Amino acid sequence: MDIRYFDNSATTKIKEEVLKEMFPYLSIQYGNPSSIYSIGRNAKRAVEEARKRVAAIINCRPEEIYFTSCGSESDNTALKGIAYANKEKGKHIITSKIEHPAILNTCENLQKHGFEVSYVGVNKDGIINLEELKNLIRKDTVLISIMFANNEIGTIQPIEEIAKIAHKNNILFHTDAVQAVGNIPIDVEKMGIDMLSLSGHKIYAPKGIGALYIKKGIEFERFMDGGHQEKNKRAGTENVAQIVGLGKACQIANQDLENYQEKLRGLRNYCLEKIKENIPNIHINGTMEKRLPGNINISFKGIDSNELLFRLDEFGICASGGSACSSGDNSPSHVLTAIGTPSELEKSAIRFTFGDFNTKEDVDYLVKVLSEIIKEPIDLH
Ligand code: PLP
User: Tell me, what's the pLDDT at 250?
Assistant: First the structure.
Protein backbone atom coordinates (compact mmCIF):
# COMPACT_ATOMS: atom_id res chain seq x y z
CA MET A 1 0.00 0.00 0.00
CA ASP A 2 1.28 3.47 -0.88
CA ILE A 3 1.84 5.87 1.97
CA ARG A 4 0.05 9.21 1.62
CA TYR A 5 1.91 11.45 3.98
CA PHE A 6 0.17 14.52 5.42
CA ASP A 7 2.30 14.98 8.51
CA ASN A 8 5.11 17.18 7.24
CA SER A 9 5.11 19.29 10.41
CA ALA A 10 6.00 16.18 12.39
CA THR A 11 8.89 15.38 10.09
CA THR A 12 9.73 15.29 6.40
CA LYS A 13 11.21 12.73 4.07
CA ILE A 14 14.87 13.47 3.28
CA LYS A 15 15.37 14.80 -0.25
CA GLU A 16 17.58 12.84 -2.66
CA GLU A 17 19.84 15.86 -3.27
CA VAL A 18 20.33 16.20 0.49
CA LEU A 19 21.25 12.53 0.90
CA LYS A 20 23.60 12.74 -2.05
CA GLU A 21 25.58 15.61 -0.51
CA MET A 22 25.69 13.91 2.87
CA PHE A 23 26.88 10.55 1.66
CA PRO A 24 30.65 11.26 1.23
CA TYR A 25 30.76 12.49 4.84
CA LEU A 26 29.33 9.17 5.99
CA SER A 27 31.90 7.24 3.98
CA ILE A 28 35.18 8.43 2.48
CA GLN A 29 35.27 11.94 4.00
CA TYR A 30 35.32 10.74 7.58
CA GLY A 31 37.88 13.20 8.93
CA ASN A 32 37.37 15.13 12.14
CA PRO A 33 36.91 18.84 11.28
CA SER A 34 39.41 19.74 14.03
CA SER A 35 42.21 17.71 12.39
CA ILE A 36 44.86 19.39 10.29
CA TYR A 37 45.28 16.78 7.53
CA SER A 38 43.34 16.93 4.29
CA ILE A 39 40.28 14.81 5.13
CA GLY A 40 39.90 16.81 8.34
CA ARG A 41 40.19 20.04 6.43
CA ASN A 42 37.65 18.79 3.88
CA ALA A 43 35.19 18.10 6.67
CA LYS A 44 35.82 21.54 8.17
CA ARG A 45 35.25 23.16 4.79
CA ALA A 46 31.96 21.27 4.38
CA VAL A 47 30.78 22.42 7.82
CA GLU A 48 31.63 26.04 7.03
CA GLU A 49 29.88 25.87 3.65
CA ALA A 50 26.79 24.50 5.41
CA ARG A 51 27.00 27.32 7.96
CA LYS A 52 26.87 29.87 5.12
CA ARG A 53 23.83 28.16 3.60
CA VAL A 54 21.98 28.07 6.91
CA ALA A 55 22.87 31.72 7.57
CA ALA A 56 21.57 32.68 4.13
CA ILE A 57 18.07 31.35 4.74
CA ILE A 58 17.54 33.72 7.69
CA ASN A 59 19.89 36.50 6.54
CA CYS A 60 22.45 36.44 9.32
CA ARG A 61 26.24 36.13 9.32
CA PRO A 62 27.65 32.57 9.18
CA GLU A 63 29.53 33.15 12.44
CA GLU A 64 26.18 33.77 14.15
CA ILE A 65 25.08 30.16 13.47
CA TYR A 66 25.77 27.40 16.05
CA PHE A 67 25.03 23.82 15.05
CA THR A 68 23.11 21.77 17.60
CA SER A 69 21.60 18.28 17.72
CA CYS A 70 17.99 19.40 17.14
CA GLY A 71 15.45 22.18 17.53
CA SER A 72 14.94 21.21 21.16
CA GLU A 73 18.62 21.70 21.92
CA SER A 74 18.56 25.08 20.19
CA ASP A 75 15.59 26.13 22.34
CA ASN A 76 17.25 24.85 25.52
CA THR A 77 20.48 26.67 24.70
CA ALA A 78 18.74 29.95 23.91
CA LEU A 79 16.59 30.01 27.02
CA LYS A 80 19.00 28.59 29.59
CA GLY A 81 22.01 30.25 27.96
CA ILE A 82 20.44 33.70 28.20
CA ALA A 83 18.81 33.13 31.59
CA TYR A 84 22.06 32.06 33.27
CA ALA A 85 24.21 34.67 31.53
CA ASN A 86 21.86 37.46 32.71
CA LYS A 87 20.89 36.21 36.15
CA GLU A 88 22.47 39.19 37.90
CA LYS A 89 20.44 41.56 35.74
CA GLY A 90 17.07 39.83 36.12
CA LYS A 91 15.41 36.47 36.37
CA HIS A 92 12.15 37.00 34.54
CA ILE A 93 11.28 35.48 31.16
CA ILE A 94 8.15 35.86 29.03
CA THR A 95 6.91 33.21 26.64
CA SER A 96 3.52 32.18 25.26
CA LYS A 97 0.92 29.62 26.21
CA ILE A 98 1.12 27.92 22.81
CA GLU A 99 4.84 27.14 22.64
CA HIS A 100 6.24 23.72 21.82
CA PRO A 101 7.22 21.56 24.83
CA ALA A 102 10.88 22.30 23.95
CA ILE A 103 10.20 25.82 25.25
CA LEU A 104 7.51 25.12 27.85
CA ASN A 105 9.45 22.36 29.62
CA THR A 106 12.67 24.37 29.48
CA CYS A 107 10.80 27.21 31.19
CA GLU A 108 9.49 24.80 33.79
CA ASN A 109 13.05 23.68 34.47
CA LEU A 110 14.20 27.29 34.81
CA GLN A 111 11.35 27.96 37.25
CA LYS A 112 12.66 25.14 39.44
CA HIS A 113 16.00 26.96 39.49
CA GLY A 114 14.69 30.30 40.73
CA PHE A 115 13.69 31.98 37.46
CA GLU A 116 10.19 33.37 36.95
CA VAL A 117 8.24 32.85 33.77
CA SER A 118 5.07 34.62 32.54
CA TYR A 119 2.94 33.11 29.80
CA VAL A 120 1.18 35.44 27.37
CA GLY A 121 -2.14 34.24 25.97
CA VAL A 122 -3.47 34.17 22.41
CA ASN A 123 -6.81 35.20 20.90
CA LYS A 124 -9.25 32.75 19.31
CA ASP A 125 -7.33 33.00 16.03
CA GLY A 126 -4.15 31.78 17.69
CA ILE A 127 -2.32 35.13 17.64
CA ILE A 128 -0.41 36.57 20.61
CA ASN A 129 -2.09 39.34 22.55
CA LEU A 130 0.41 42.20 22.23
CA GLU A 131 -1.19 44.39 24.91
CA GLU A 132 -0.99 41.52 27.39
CA LEU A 133 2.64 41.00 26.39
CA LYS A 134 3.45 44.66 27.11
CA ASN A 135 1.74 44.41 30.50
CA LEU A 136 3.77 41.36 31.47
CA ILE A 137 7.09 43.17 31.04
CA ARG A 138 8.89 43.91 34.32
CA LYS A 139 12.13 45.65 35.27
CA ASP A 140 13.80 42.25 35.68
CA THR A 141 12.59 40.76 32.35
CA VAL A 142 15.64 39.63 30.40
CA LEU A 143 14.14 37.53 27.61
CA ILE A 144 11.00 37.21 25.51
CA SER A 145 10.66 33.94 23.59
CA ILE A 146 7.71 33.63 21.21
CA MET A 147 7.43 31.02 18.49
CA PHE A 148 7.40 32.17 14.86
CA ALA A 149 4.72 29.72 13.73
CA ASN A 150 2.74 27.23 15.75
CA ASN A 151 3.28 23.52 15.18
CA GLU A 152 -0.37 22.52 15.70
CA ILE A 153 -2.44 25.25 14.06
CA GLY A 154 0.27 26.90 11.95
CA THR A 155 -0.53 30.44 13.04
CA ILE A 156 2.19 33.01 12.39
CA GLN A 157 2.98 35.56 15.09
CA PRO A 158 3.66 39.31 14.56
CA ILE A 159 7.38 38.77 15.05
CA GLU A 160 8.59 42.24 14.05
CA GLU A 161 6.17 43.89 16.46
CA ILE A 162 7.17 41.57 19.29
CA ALA A 163 10.86 42.27 18.62
CA LYS A 164 10.17 46.03 18.73
CA ILE A 165 8.36 45.71 22.06
CA ALA A 166 11.26 43.67 23.46
CA HIS A 167 13.96 46.07 22.29
CA LYS A 168 12.07 49.16 23.43
CA ASN A 169 12.30 47.65 26.91
CA ASN A 170 15.92 46.51 26.55
CA ILE A 171 14.94 42.85 26.48
CA LEU A 172 16.39 40.14 24.23
CA PHE A 173 14.07 38.38 21.79
CA HIS A 174 14.26 34.69 20.85
CA THR A 175 11.95 32.90 18.43
CA ASP A 176 11.43 29.18 17.95
CA ALA A 177 11.24 29.11 14.17
CA VAL A 178 11.38 25.32 13.78
CA GLN A 179 8.08 25.30 11.86
CA ALA A 180 8.70 28.54 10.00
CA VAL A 181 12.17 28.24 8.46
CA GLY A 182 11.92 26.98 4.89
CA ASN A 183 8.17 27.67 4.83
CA ILE A 184 8.00 31.45 5.06
CA PRO A 185 10.59 34.17 4.41
CA ILE A 186 12.65 35.12 7.46
CA ASP A 187 15.10 37.98 7.75
CA VAL A 188 16.50 38.21 11.27
CA GLU A 189 18.08 41.57 10.63
CA LYS A 190 14.98 43.20 9.23
CA MET A 191 12.70 41.57 11.77
CA GLY A 192 14.90 42.41 14.76
CA ILE A 193 15.34 38.82 15.94
CA ASP A 194 18.20 38.29 18.43
CA MET A 195 18.06 34.49 18.57
CA LEU A 196 16.32 31.87 16.45
CA SER A 197 16.00 28.08 16.63
CA LEU A 198 15.64 25.83 13.60
CA SER A 199 15.65 22.11 12.90
CA GLY A 200 16.66 19.98 9.90
CA HIS A 201 13.98 17.34 9.83
CA LYS A 202 11.16 19.78 9.11
CA ILE A 203 12.81 20.86 5.85
CA TYR A 204 13.84 17.57 4.19
CA ALA A 205 17.15 17.14 6.07
CA PRO A 206 17.68 14.33 8.59
CA LYS A 207 16.45 14.18 12.16
CA GLY A 208 18.99 15.02 14.86
CA ILE A 209 20.42 18.23 13.44
CA GLY A 210 19.49 21.78 14.32
CA ALA A 211 20.95 25.24 14.51
CA LEU A 212 20.72 28.26 16.72
CA TYR A 213 21.26 31.78 15.48
CA ILE A 214 22.59 34.13 18.12
CA LYS A 215 23.24 37.72 17.12
CA LYS A 216 26.88 38.69 17.41
CA GLY A 217 27.72 40.29 20.75
CA ILE A 218 25.00 38.58 22.78
CA GLU A 219 26.48 36.76 25.76
CA PHE A 220 25.11 33.32 26.56
CA GLU A 221 26.17 30.37 28.70
CA ARG A 222 27.07 27.26 26.76
CA PHE A 223 24.74 24.32 27.10
CA MET A 224 27.29 21.58 26.44
CA ASP A 225 30.71 21.55 28.12
CA GLY A 226 33.69 19.83 26.56
CA GLY A 227 35.87 20.61 23.53
CA HIS A 228 36.23 23.92 21.76
CA GLN A 229 33.89 23.28 18.85
CA GLU A 230 31.38 25.93 17.72
CA LYS A 231 33.47 28.82 19.03
CA ASN A 232 33.68 27.14 22.42
CA LYS A 233 29.91 27.33 22.81
CA ARG A 234 28.78 23.82 21.91
CA ALA A 235 31.14 20.95 22.59
CA GLY A 236 31.12 17.70 20.66
CA THR A 237 32.76 16.63 17.40
CA GLU A 238 30.66 18.13 14.64
CA ASN A 239 28.05 15.85 13.10
CA VAL A 240 29.49 16.60 9.68
CA ALA A 241 27.13 14.62 7.44
CA GLN A 242 24.03 15.92 9.18
CA ILE A 243 25.35 19.48 9.12
CA VAL A 244 25.99 19.12 5.38
CA GLY A 245 22.43 17.79 5.00
CA LEU A 246 20.98 20.74 6.87
CA GLY A 247 23.02 23.15 4.74
CA LYS A 248 21.81 21.56 1.51
CA ALA A 249 18.18 21.55 2.67
CA CYS A 250 18.43 25.26 3.53
CA GLN A 251 20.00 26.02 0.17
CA ILE A 252 17.18 24.24 -1.69
CA ALA A 253 14.50 25.88 0.44
CA ASN A 254 16.03 29.31 0.00
CA GLN A 255 16.22 29.02 -3.79
CA ASP A 256 12.62 28.07 -4.27
CA LEU A 257 10.66 29.48 -1.36
CA GLU A 258 8.01 31.34 -3.35
CA ASN A 259 7.12 28.38 -5.57
CA TYR A 260 7.18 26.05 -2.60
CA GLN A 261 4.78 28.23 -0.64
CA GLU A 262 2.47 28.49 -3.63
CA LYS A 263 2.49 24.73 -4.11
CA LEU A 264 1.71 24.03 -0.45
CA ARG A 265 -0.95 26.70 -0.24
CA GLY A 266 -2.54 25.35 -3.43
CA LEU A 267 -2.69 21.78 -2.10
CA ARG A 268 -3.89 22.90 1.32
CA ASN A 269 -6.65 25.13 -0.08
CA TYR A 270 -7.72 22.47 -2.58
CA CYS A 271 -7.92 19.95 0.26
CA LEU A 272 -9.94 22.31 2.40
CA GLU A 273 -12.41 23.06 -0.41
CA LYS A 274 -12.87 19.35 -1.11
CA ILE A 275 -13.40 18.61 2.58
CA LYS A 276 -15.97 21.41 2.85
CA GLU A 277 -17.80 20.06 -0.22
CA ASN A 278 -17.87 16.49 0.99
CA ILE A 279 -17.91 16.46 4.76
CA PRO A 280 -20.46 18.24 6.95
CA ASN A 281 -19.89 19.58 10.46
CA ILE A 282 -16.30 20.64 10.31
CA HIS A 283 -14.60 23.43 12.21
CA ILE A 284 -11.25 25.02 11.32
CA ASN A 285 -8.98 25.68 14.28
CA GLY A 286 -6.98 28.94 14.14
CA THR A 287 -7.06 31.77 11.61
CA MET A 288 -6.65 31.00 7.90
CA GLU A 289 -5.10 34.41 7.32
CA LYS A 290 -1.80 34.32 9.18
CA ARG A 291 -0.97 30.68 8.80
CA LEU A 292 1.77 28.43 7.42
CA PRO A 293 0.94 27.64 3.79
CA GLY A 294 0.94 23.87 4.34
CA ASN A 295 -1.06 23.66 7.58
CA ILE A 296 -4.69 22.91 8.22
CA ASN A 297 -6.17 21.84 11.54
CA ILE A 298 -9.78 20.68 11.35
CA SER A 299 -12.22 19.35 13.92
CA PHE A 300 -14.65 16.76 12.58
CA LYS A 301 -17.54 17.23 15.00
CA GLY A 302 -18.57 14.08 16.83
CA ILE A 303 -15.56 12.06 15.64
CA ASP A 304 -12.79 10.96 17.98
CA SER A 305 -9.49 12.07 16.41
CA ASN A 306 -7.49 9.05 17.60
CA GLU A 307 -10.06 6.67 16.12
CA LEU A 308 -10.02 8.61 12.89
CA LEU A 309 -6.22 8.54 12.71
CA PHE A 310 -6.20 4.76 13.16
CA ARG A 311 -8.79 4.35 10.42
CA LEU A 312 -6.84 6.65 8.08
CA ASP A 313 -3.72 4.62 8.77
CA GLU A 314 -5.51 1.49 7.52
CA PHE A 315 -5.66 3.29 4.17
CA GLY A 316 -2.00 4.36 4.26
CA ILE A 317 -2.81 7.93 5.27
CA CYS A 318 -0.56 9.63 7.85
CA ALA A 319 -1.84 12.67 9.72
CA SER A 320 -1.69 13.87 13.26
CA GLY A 321 -4.03 14.74 16.10
CA GLY A 322 -2.10 17.75 17.35
CA SER A 323 1.66 17.91 17.62
CA ALA A 324 3.60 14.68 17.04
CA CYS A 325 5.07 15.05 20.49
CA SER A 326 1.64 14.53 22.01
CA SER A 327 0.63 11.53 19.95
CA GLY A 328 -0.22 8.59 22.15
CA ASP A 329 -0.97 11.07 24.88
CA ASN A 330 -4.65 11.73 25.42
CA SER A 331 -4.30 14.96 27.39
CA PRO A 332 -5.97 17.94 25.72
CA SER A 333 -3.92 20.04 23.31
CA HIS A 334 -2.62 23.08 25.21
CA VAL A 335 -2.75 25.04 21.95
CA LEU A 336 -6.41 24.29 21.22
CA THR A 337 -7.20 25.00 24.87
CA ALA A 338 -5.39 28.36 24.64
CA ILE A 339 -7.51 29.45 21.65
CA GLY A 340 -10.67 28.53 23.56
CA THR A 341 -11.66 25.40 21.60
CA PRO A 342 -14.54 23.58 23.29
CA SER A 343 -13.56 20.11 24.50
CA GLU A 344 -15.76 18.22 21.98
CA LEU A 345 -14.01 20.00 19.09
CA GLU A 346 -10.61 19.53 20.70
CA LYS A 347 -11.11 15.76 20.82
CA SER A 348 -11.94 15.68 17.13
CA ALA A 349 -9.08 17.84 15.80
CA ILE A 350 -6.82 16.53 13.06
CA ARG A 351 -3.76 18.29 11.65
CA PHE A 352 -2.91 17.78 7.98
CA THR A 353 0.42 19.27 6.93
CA PHE A 354 1.49 19.31 3.30
CA GLY A 355 4.95 19.01 1.83
CA ASP A 356 6.92 18.89 -1.38
CA PHE A 357 6.17 15.23 -2.07
CA ASN A 358 2.37 15.62 -1.92
CA THR A 359 0.27 15.67 -5.08
CA LYS A 360 -3.30 16.65 -5.94
CA GLU A 361 -4.03 12.98 -6.42
CA ASP A 362 -2.93 12.33 -2.81
CA VAL A 363 -5.43 14.96 -1.71
CA ASP A 364 -8.26 13.40 -3.77
CA TYR A 365 -7.50 10.05 -2.17
CA LEU A 366 -7.42 11.60 1.31
CA VAL A 367 -10.79 13.33 0.90
CA LYS A 368 -12.40 10.21 -0.61
CA VAL A 369 -11.21 8.05 2.28
CA LEU A 370 -12.09 10.68 4.86
CA SER A 371 -15.62 11.10 3.62
CA GLU A 372 -16.19 7.34 3.44
CA ILE A 373 -14.88 6.81 6.97
CA ILE A 374 -16.90 9.70 8.35
CA LYS A 375 -20.10 8.46 6.67
CA GLU A 376 -19.81 5.25 8.68
CA PRO A 377 -20.30 6.09 12.31
CA ILE A 378 -17.12 5.43 14.26
CA ASP A 379 -17.49 3.58 17.52
CA LEU A 380 -16.04 6.00 20.04
CA HIS A 381 -15.81 3.48 22.89
N1 PLP B 1 9.80 23.66 18.22
C2 PLP B 1 8.75 23.42 17.41
C3 PLP B 1 7.80 24.52 17.11
C4 PLP B 1 8.56 22.14 16.86
O5 PLP B 1 7.51 21.92 16.07
C6 PLP B 1 9.49 21.13 17.16
C7 PLP B 1 9.29 19.76 16.66
O8 PLP B 1 8.20 19.35 16.32
C9 PLP B 1 10.58 21.45 18.00
C10 PLP B 1 10.70 22.72 18.52
C11 PLP B 1 11.60 20.43 18.36
O12 PLP B 1 12.46 20.16 17.27
P13 PLP B 1 13.32 18.83 17.24
O14 PLP B 1 12.37 17.71 16.94
O15 PLP B 1 14.33 19.04 16.16
O16 PLP B 1 13.94 18.71 18.58
Answer: 98
* Phi, psi (deg, nearest 5) at residue 108: -60, -40
Q: What is the pLDDT of residues 263-280, one digit of tens each?
A: 999 999 999 999 999 999
For ligand 1, atom 8, the nearest C-alpha belongs to 10
- Does the beta carbon of 100 lie inside 6 Å of ligand 1? yes
Q: Taking a C-beta distance cutoff of 8 angstroms, is the pair 111, 60 a contact?
A: no
Expressed in angstroms and rounded, the spacing between residue 151 Cα and the centre of ligand 1 is 8
Ligand 1 atom nearest to CA at 323: 8
User: Under DSSP, is residue 33 helix (H, G, I), strand (E, B) or coil?
Assistant: coil
pTM equals: 0.96
The Cα–Cα gap between 189 and 185 comes to: 12
Q: Decide whether any atom of ligand 1 lies within 6 Å of the 176 Cβ.
A: yes
Q: What confidence tier does 332 reach under pLDDT thresholds 50, 70, 90?
A: confident
Beta carbons of 159 and 181 less than 8 angstroms apart: no
Helices (H), the chain: 16-22, 38-58, 71-85, 101-112, 130-136, 159-168, 188-191, 229-232, 240-255, 257-278, 305-314, 334-338, 343-346, 360-375
| 3-class DSSP state of 142 | strand
* CB of residue 200 inside a 6 A radius of ligand 1: no
